[in-house]
Protein backbone atom coordinates (compact mmCIF):
# COMPACT_ATOMS: atom_id res chain seq x y z
CA UNK A 1 0.00 0.00 0.00
CA UNK A 2 3.02 2.31 0.32
CA UNK A 3 2.86 3.35 -3.33
CA UNK A 4 -0.75 4.54 -3.22
CA UNK A 5 0.02 7.97 -1.73
CA UNK A 6 2.80 10.40 -2.57
CA UNK A 7 4.89 12.22 0.02
CA UNK A 8 2.23 14.94 0.37
CA UNK A 9 -0.40 12.37 1.28
CA UNK A 10 -2.16 12.80 -2.08
CA UNK A 11 -3.44 9.91 -4.14
CA UNK A 12 -1.09 8.63 -6.82
CA UNK A 13 -2.97 8.90 -10.11
CA UNK A 14 -0.91 6.04 -11.51
CA UNK A 15 -2.45 3.61 -9.06
CA UNK A 16 -4.45 1.28 -11.32
CA UNK A 17 -8.07 1.55 -10.22
CA UNK A 18 -11.26 3.28 -11.27
CA UNK A 19 -11.93 6.79 -10.02
CA UNK A 20 -14.88 5.57 -7.92
CA UNK A 21 -12.42 3.61 -5.73
CA UNK A 22 -10.32 6.71 -5.01
CA UNK A 23 -12.91 8.32 -2.76
CA UNK A 24 -15.08 7.29 0.14
CA UNK A 25 -18.12 5.25 -0.80
CA UNK A 26 -20.90 4.81 1.71
CA UNK A 27 -21.37 1.14 2.60
CA UNK A 28 -25.10 1.89 2.77
CA UNK A 29 -25.02 2.17 -1.01
CA UNK A 30 -22.06 0.00 -1.97
CA UNK A 31 -23.03 -3.01 0.17
CA UNK A 32 -26.55 -2.78 1.54
CA UNK A 33 -28.92 -0.67 -0.59
CA UNK A 34 -31.12 -2.07 -3.32
CA UNK A 35 -30.55 -0.54 -6.78
CA UNK A 36 -34.01 1.04 -6.60
CA UNK A 37 -33.41 2.67 -3.23
CA UNK A 38 -29.92 3.82 -4.21
CA UNK A 39 -31.36 5.54 -7.27
CA UNK A 40 -34.16 7.10 -5.21
CA UNK A 41 -31.60 9.03 -3.17
CA UNK A 42 -29.28 9.76 -6.10
CA UNK A 43 -28.27 13.13 -7.54
CA UNK A 44 -29.98 12.25 -10.80
CA UNK A 45 -33.30 11.69 -9.02
CA UNK A 46 -32.84 14.80 -6.90
CA UNK A 47 -31.96 17.29 -9.61
CA UNK A 48 -34.32 15.98 -12.28
CA UNK A 49 -37.04 16.34 -9.64
CA UNK A 50 -35.97 19.96 -9.09
CA UNK A 51 -36.39 20.57 -12.81
CA UNK A 52 -39.76 18.84 -12.88
CA UNK A 53 -40.90 21.06 -10.01
CA UNK A 54 -39.81 24.17 -11.89
CA UNK A 55 -41.73 22.88 -14.90
CA UNK A 56 -44.86 22.19 -12.80
CA UNK A 57 -44.66 25.70 -11.35
CA UNK A 58 -44.35 27.32 -14.78
CA UNK A 59 -47.20 25.23 -16.22
CA UNK A 60 -49.48 26.14 -13.32
CA UNK A 61 -48.53 29.81 -13.56
CA UNK A 62 -49.38 29.77 -17.27
CA UNK A 63 -52.71 28.06 -16.56
CA UNK A 64 -53.66 30.75 -14.07
CA UNK A 65 -52.74 33.59 -16.39
CA UNK A 66 -49.07 34.56 -16.30
CA UNK A 67 -47.46 35.35 -19.65
CA UNK A 68 -45.58 32.09 -20.14
CA UNK A 69 -45.24 30.69 -23.66
CA UNK A 70 -45.73 27.12 -24.78
CA UNK A 71 -42.27 27.05 -26.36
CA UNK A 72 -40.75 28.00 -23.01
CA UNK A 73 -42.48 25.08 -21.32
CA UNK A 74 -41.47 22.75 -24.14
CA UNK A 75 -37.86 23.83 -23.80
CA UNK A 76 -37.92 23.11 -20.06
CA UNK A 77 -39.61 19.75 -20.56
CA UNK A 78 -37.08 18.68 -23.20
CA UNK A 79 -34.17 19.42 -20.87
CA UNK A 80 -35.34 17.92 -17.58
CA UNK A 81 -32.70 15.20 -17.84
CA UNK A 82 -30.06 17.28 -19.62
CA UNK A 83 -28.02 18.17 -16.53
CA UNK A 84 -24.44 19.38 -16.75
CA UNK A 85 -23.30 18.30 -13.28
CA UNK A 86 -19.83 19.75 -13.72
CA UNK A 87 -21.25 23.17 -14.58
CA UNK A 88 -23.60 23.01 -11.61
CA UNK A 89 -20.73 22.12 -9.27
CA UNK A 90 -18.61 24.99 -10.61
CA UNK A 91 -21.50 27.41 -10.20
CA UNK A 92 -22.13 26.26 -6.65
CA UNK A 93 -18.49 26.83 -5.75
CA UNK A 94 -18.78 30.34 -7.15
CA UNK A 95 -22.22 31.29 -5.85
CA UNK A 96 -22.19 29.27 -2.59
CA UNK A 97 -25.82 28.39 -3.27
CA UNK A 98 -26.87 25.01 -4.60
CA UNK A 99 -30.34 25.97 -5.84
CA UNK A 100 -29.23 29.07 -7.71
CA UNK A 101 -26.36 27.09 -9.22
CA UNK A 102 -28.90 24.69 -10.70
CA UNK A 103 -31.22 27.50 -11.78
CA UNK A 104 -28.30 28.94 -13.74
CA UNK A 105 -27.35 25.52 -15.15
CA UNK A 106 -30.94 24.80 -16.24
CA UNK A 107 -31.16 28.25 -17.82
CA UNK A 108 -28.07 27.57 -19.93
CA UNK A 109 -29.87 24.80 -21.79
CA UNK A 110 -33.23 26.63 -21.73
CA UNK A 111 -32.37 30.17 -22.88
CA UNK A 112 -35.94 31.03 -23.90
CA UNK A 113 -37.28 29.85 -20.55
CA UNK A 114 -34.51 31.37 -18.40
CA UNK A 115 -36.67 34.24 -17.16
CA UNK A 116 -39.46 32.00 -15.84
CA UNK A 117 -37.44 29.30 -14.10
CA UNK A 118 -38.01 29.44 -10.32
CA UNK A 119 -40.34 32.44 -10.78
CA UNK A 120 -41.52 33.66 -7.36
CA UNK A 121 -40.13 30.60 -5.59
CA UNK A 122 -37.65 30.14 -2.76
CA UNK A 123 -34.99 27.44 -2.43
CA UNK A 124 -37.20 25.25 -0.27
CA UNK A 125 -39.75 25.07 -3.07
CA UNK A 126 -37.46 22.61 -4.82
CA UNK A 127 -35.43 21.43 -1.81
CA UNK A 128 -38.19 20.52 0.63
CA UNK A 129 -40.72 19.40 -1.96
CA UNK A 130 -38.12 17.09 -3.49
CA UNK A 131 -37.31 15.64 -0.08
CA UNK A 132 -41.00 14.87 0.45
CA UNK A 133 -41.24 13.21 -2.96
CA UNK A 134 -38.12 11.13 -2.26
CA UNK A 135 -39.40 10.11 1.19
CA UNK A 136 -42.79 9.14 -0.24
CA UNK A 137 -41.15 7.12 -3.02
CA UNK A 138 -38.87 5.43 -0.49
CA UNK A 139 -41.89 4.31 1.53
CA UNK A 140 -43.42 2.96 -1.68
CA UNK A 141 -40.29 0.85 -2.15
CA UNK A 142 -40.08 -0.25 1.48
CA UNK A 143 -43.70 -1.14 2.25
CA UNK A 144 -44.15 -3.90 -0.36
CA UNK A 145 -40.90 -5.51 0.78
CA UNK A 146 -42.06 -5.42 4.39
CA UNK A 147 -45.45 -6.85 3.39
CA UNK A 148 -43.69 -9.68 1.52
CA UNK A 149 -41.57 -10.44 4.59
CA UNK A 150 -44.72 -10.58 6.72
CA UNK A 151 -46.43 -12.90 4.23
CA UNK A 152 -43.51 -15.33 4.19
CA UNK A 153 -43.19 -15.31 7.96
CA UNK A 154 -46.94 -15.93 8.26
CA UNK A 155 -46.61 -18.95 5.99
CA UNK A 156 -43.75 -20.22 8.16
CA UNK A 157 -45.81 -19.73 11.33
CA UNK A 158 -48.74 -21.62 9.84
CA UNK A 159 -46.53 -24.50 8.74
CA UNK A 160 -44.83 -24.75 12.16
CA UNK A 161 -47.83 -24.05 14.39
CA UNK A 162 -47.80 -27.52 15.93
CA UNK A 163 -44.05 -28.02 16.27
CA UNK A 164 -43.21 -27.87 20.00
CA UNK A 165 -40.18 -26.02 21.27
CA UNK A 166 -38.94 -24.93 24.65
CA UNK A 167 -39.96 -21.42 25.61
CA UNK A 168 -37.65 -19.11 27.54
CA UNK A 169 -38.25 -16.37 30.07
CA UNK A 170 -35.26 -14.45 31.40
CA UNK A 171 -33.43 -16.65 28.85
CA UNK A 172 -34.02 -19.52 31.24
CA UNK A 173 -35.89 -22.70 30.20
CA UNK A 174 -39.61 -22.27 30.87
CA UNK A 175 -42.70 -24.04 29.50
CA UNK A 176 -43.26 -25.41 26.04
CA UNK A 177 -44.47 -23.21 23.22
CA UNK A 178 -44.47 -23.86 19.48
CA UNK A 179 -42.23 -22.61 16.72
CA UNK A 180 -45.28 -21.13 14.99
CA UNK A 181 -46.38 -19.30 18.14
CA UNK A 182 -42.95 -17.76 18.57
CA UNK A 183 -42.97 -16.63 14.93
CA UNK A 184 -46.34 -14.99 15.61
CA UNK A 185 -44.65 -12.77 18.22
CA UNK A 186 -42.38 -11.48 15.49
CA UNK A 187 -45.30 -11.14 13.09
CA UNK A 188 -47.30 -9.07 15.54
CA UNK A 189 -44.49 -6.53 15.86
CA UNK A 190 -43.93 -6.38 12.11
CA UNK A 191 -47.62 -5.77 11.54
CA UNK A 192 -47.47 -2.82 13.93
CA UNK A 193 -44.50 -1.49 11.96
CA UNK A 194 -46.41 -1.93 8.71
CA UNK A 195 -49.31 0.03 10.20
CA UNK A 196 -47.04 2.81 11.50
CA UNK A 197 -45.04 3.15 8.28
CA UNK A 198 -48.21 3.16 6.17
CA UNK A 199 -49.72 5.85 8.36
CA UNK A 200 -46.63 8.04 8.07
CA UNK A 201 -46.53 7.55 4.30
CA UNK A 202 -50.21 8.38 3.94
CA UNK A 203 -49.91 11.41 6.23
CA UNK A 204 -47.16 12.95 4.12
CA UNK A 205 -48.19 16.14 2.37
CA UNK A 206 -46.53 18.39 -0.17
CA UNK A 207 -44.90 21.59 1.07
CA UNK A 208 -46.46 23.21 -1.93
CA UNK A 209 -45.99 26.69 -3.37
CA UNK A 210 -45.03 28.82 -0.39
CA UNK A 211 -42.83 31.89 -0.24
CA UNK A 212 -39.61 32.58 1.59
CA UNK A 213 -41.25 32.63 5.04
CA UNK A 214 -44.35 30.63 4.15
CA UNK A 215 -46.55 33.68 3.54
CA UNK A 216 -46.78 33.27 -0.27
CA UNK A 217 -46.15 37.02 -0.57
CA UNK A 218 -44.05 36.67 -3.73
CA UNK A 219 -46.84 34.78 -5.47
CA UNK A 220 -49.44 37.29 -4.32
CA UNK A 221 -47.30 39.94 -6.00
CA UNK A 222 -47.16 37.94 -9.23
CA UNK A 223 -50.96 37.64 -9.26
CA UNK A 224 -51.67 41.25 -8.22
CA UNK A 225 -52.84 40.32 -4.75
CA UNK A 226 -55.37 37.71 -5.90
CA UNK A 227 -55.30 35.14 -3.11
CA UNK A 228 -57.62 32.73 -4.90
CA UNK A 229 -55.13 32.43 -7.76
CA UNK A 230 -52.33 31.73 -5.30
CA UNK A 231 -54.40 29.01 -3.64
CA UNK A 232 -55.15 27.52 -7.05
CA UNK A 233 -51.45 27.60 -7.93
CA UNK A 234 -50.68 25.65 -4.76
CA UNK A 235 -53.34 23.05 -5.58
CA UNK A 236 -52.29 22.63 -9.21
CA UNK A 237 -48.60 22.10 -8.44
CA UNK A 238 -49.44 19.75 -5.56
CA UNK A 239 -51.53 17.59 -7.91
CA UNK A 240 -48.85 17.63 -10.63
CA UNK A 241 -46.33 16.38 -8.09
CA UNK A 242 -48.57 13.43 -7.22
CA UNK A 243 -49.86 14.56 -3.81
CA UNK A 244 -53.46 15.01 -2.77
CA UNK A 245 -52.77 17.62 -0.09
CA UNK A 246 -50.22 20.24 0.84
CA UNK A 247 -49.37 21.50 4.31
CA UNK A 248 -51.66 24.40 5.21
CA UNK A 249 -49.05 26.20 7.30
CA UNK A 250 -45.28 26.23 6.80
CA UNK A 251 -42.37 28.48 7.51
CA UNK A 252 -39.70 28.47 4.85
CA UNK A 253 -39.57 24.68 5.30
CA UNK A 254 -42.15 22.05 6.07
CA UNK A 255 -42.19 21.40 9.80
CA UNK A 256 -39.36 19.15 10.88
CA UNK A 257 -41.90 17.31 13.00
CA UNK A 258 -42.53 15.43 9.75
CA UNK A 259 -38.98 14.07 9.83
CA UNK A 260 -39.51 13.02 13.44
CA UNK A 261 -42.56 11.02 12.38
CA UNK A 262 -40.68 9.40 9.50
CA UNK A 263 -37.62 8.38 11.45
CA UNK A 264 -39.59 7.34 14.54
CA UNK A 265 -41.53 4.82 12.44
CA UNK A 266 -38.33 3.62 10.79
CA UNK A 267 -36.58 3.35 14.16
CA UNK A 268 -39.50 1.24 15.38
CA UNK A 269 -39.01 -1.09 12.42
CA UNK A 270 -35.30 -1.22 13.27
CA UNK A 271 -36.11 -2.25 16.85
CA UNK A 272 -38.36 -5.06 15.61
CA UNK A 273 -35.75 -6.33 13.17
CA UNK A 274 -33.11 -6.25 15.90
CA UNK A 275 -35.32 -8.24 18.28
CA UNK A 276 -36.24 -10.85 15.64
CA UNK A 277 -32.68 -11.30 14.46
CA UNK A 278 -31.32 -11.45 18.01
CA UNK A 279 -33.77 -14.28 18.71
CA UNK A 280 -32.56 -16.05 15.57
CA UNK A 281 -28.94 -15.66 16.65
CA UNK A 282 -29.73 -17.17 20.05
CA UNK A 283 -31.65 -20.02 18.43
CA UNK A 284 -28.73 -20.63 16.09
CA UNK A 285 -26.49 -21.13 19.10
CA UNK A 286 -29.02 -23.62 20.48
CA UNK A 287 -28.97 -25.43 17.10
CA UNK A 288 -32.72 -24.90 16.68
CA UNK A 289 -32.48 -22.79 13.52
CA UNK A 290 -29.83 -22.27 10.90
CA UNK A 291 -29.42 -19.58 8.27
CA UNK A 292 -28.97 -20.61 4.62
CA UNK A 293 -25.37 -21.59 3.93
CA UNK A 294 -24.32 -21.41 0.31
CA UNK A 295 -22.13 -23.99 -1.44
CA UNK A 296 -19.03 -21.78 -1.64
CA UNK A 297 -19.66 -19.78 1.54
CA UNK A 298 -16.93 -19.79 4.20
CA UNK A 299 -17.81 -19.53 7.88
CA UNK A 300 -14.46 -18.13 9.01
CA UNK A 301 -10.83 -18.10 7.89
CA UNK A 302 -9.81 -20.60 10.59
CA UNK A 303 -12.98 -22.70 10.67
CA UNK A 304 -14.61 -22.59 7.24
CA UNK A 305 -17.20 -25.18 8.29
CA UNK A 306 -18.72 -22.79 10.86
CA UNK A 307 -22.24 -21.57 10.09
CA UNK A 308 -22.35 -18.11 11.59
CA UNK A 309 -25.73 -16.28 11.58
CA UNK A 310 -24.19 -13.54 9.46
CA UNK A 311 -27.45 -12.31 7.91
CA UNK A 312 -29.03 -11.81 11.31
CA UNK A 313 -25.88 -10.14 12.59
CA UNK A 314 -25.86 -7.76 9.63
CA UNK A 315 -29.52 -6.93 10.19
CA UNK A 316 -28.81 -6.18 13.86
CA UNK A 317 -25.90 -3.96 12.91
CA UNK A 318 -27.92 -1.87 10.44
CA UNK A 319 -30.96 -1.80 12.70
CA UNK A 320 -28.86 -0.47 15.57
CA UNK A 321 -27.72 2.42 13.38
CA UNK A 322 -31.28 3.05 12.18
CA UNK A 323 -32.56 3.26 15.74
CA UNK A 324 -30.06 6.00 16.61
CA UNK A 325 -31.09 8.30 13.74
CA UNK A 326 -34.30 9.53 15.32
CA UNK A 327 -32.25 11.77 17.62
CA UNK A 328 -31.24 13.98 14.70
CA UNK A 329 -34.70 15.27 13.69
CA UNK A 330 -35.65 15.69 17.34
CA UNK A 331 -32.68 18.03 17.80
CA UNK A 332 -33.28 19.76 14.45
CA UNK A 333 -36.92 20.50 15.16
CA UNK A 334 -36.08 21.74 18.66
CA UNK A 335 -33.58 24.34 17.40
CA UNK A 336 -35.14 25.49 14.11
CA UNK A 337 -35.52 29.14 15.03
CA UNK A 338 -38.64 30.97 13.86
CA UNK A 339 -39.29 30.46 10.14
CA UNK A 340 -36.09 28.54 9.37
CA UNK A 341 -32.39 28.09 9.99
CA UNK A 342 -29.99 26.29 7.67
CA UNK A 343 -28.43 23.92 10.19
CA UNK A 344 -31.01 21.29 9.27
CA UNK A 345 -29.80 20.92 5.69
CA UNK A 346 -26.69 18.75 5.88
CA UNK A 347 -28.09 16.93 8.89
CA UNK A 348 -31.36 15.87 7.26
CA UNK A 349 -29.62 14.74 4.09
CA UNK A 350 -27.62 12.30 6.22
CA UNK A 351 -30.38 11.23 8.62
CA UNK A 352 -33.03 10.54 5.99
CA UNK A 353 -30.87 8.58 3.56
CA UNK A 354 -31.12 5.20 5.32
CA UNK A 355 -34.34 3.57 4.24
TrEMBL record:
Keyword Hydrolase applies: no
Family annotation (InterPro entries): Fumarase/histidase_N, Fumarate_lyase_CS, Fumarate_lyase_fam, Fumarate_lyase_N, L-Aspartase-like
Signal peptide positions (record): none
A GO cellular component annotation in the UniProt record: cytosol
Organism: Patiria miniata
Protein name, entry field: Fumarate lyase N-terminal domain-containing protein
GO terms, molecular function: (S)-2-(5-amino-1-(5-phospho-D-ribosyl)imidazole-4-carboxamido) succinate lyase (fumarate-forming) activity; N6-(1,2-dicarboxyethyl)AMP AMP-lyase (fumarate-forming) activity
Domain Fumarate lyase N-terminal: 113-319
